[in-house]
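All the exercises in this workshop are built on plain-text protein records. Sequence and backbone structure share a record, each on its own labelled line. The structure tokens are whole numbers drawn from a learned vocabulary of backbone shapes. The record below serves as our worked example for the rest of this section.
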Amino acid sequence: IGVAGFLSAVRANPATWRLLLSAEQLPEAARAQYDRSRQSLLEQLTLLAEAGLSLRASGPLDPVLLARLILVGVEEAARLVLDDPDTFTEDRLAAFVSELARSIQEG
């Protein structure tokens, strides 16, 4: 759905996302499911990072570390949209992510 679409979904469901972004407060069973889902997402991001980095013009980057940075970056973007939506708009964050991805790709 893209960055802007994801962040729009976050803004449309703030209570749900605030809960997910503070997963340490979830009941044990819910936290276990959250952890499994997050690990699965991390594995998918790693595969995407490997594919994207294979097209990179310059030196190698670690796809596992890149996937982790993407995940925490997305989580922080969601927090920014929830906490300060006038400053951190979906469009601003999506433009930043696009430029960052382009910069990584070009090396």
In short: The helical segments are 2-12, 14-20, 28-53, 63-83, 90-106. DSSP finds five helices and no strands in the chain.
